[in-house]
Amino acid sequence: xxxxxxxxxxxxxxxxxxxxxxxxxxxxxxxxxxxxxxxxxxxxxxxxxxxxxxxxxxxxxxxxxxxxxxxxxxxxxxxxxxxxxxxxxxxxxxxxxxxxxxxxxxxxxxxxxxxxxxxxxxxxxxxxxxxxxxxxxxxxxxxxxxxxxxxxxxxxxxxxxxxxxxxxxxxxxx
Length: 174
What we know:
Layout: H1 8-17, E1 23-30, E2 43-46, E3 49-50, E4 54-61, E5 64-73, E6 79-85, E7 98-101, E8 110-114, H2 117-122, E9 129-135, E10 139-146, E11 152-163
Antiparallel strand pairs: 1-2, 1-11, 2-4, 3-4, 4-5, 5-6, 6-7, 8-9, 9-10, 10-11
């Protein structure tokens, strides 16, 4: 890489922060099924907080405000994805802070996150999970594939149509 080139992860990060403070509605594009807790619910992501090294994106499923995607930019330009899950009272869910670290700086439009050791220890069946996020001018797509199984889930958010921010996620200070 030439010294003047901006790593894909930094381009991705910078593009994502342009949406800070905004909320967008999404739809399941793969892996949804009746009774899964997602299908038939209003799905909203809110790029709620953007710091120099972290971005917090609550993902609301109907009235369920338990999920927040936490992206952390490390000094080596690798991005860490964690899933912060909270109970209604704001305390940590039994299964929380799982995710993975991007194996390289990736591309401006896509970042991959294979499950890390913490995730494997916490949720053995998720050891083969790979999450990825795609980002372009019109959409943000969150994806999960459990390698070696049929498990695939994808939800796509329309970045061209902002919706009202749904309030604070469970466990938030404000």
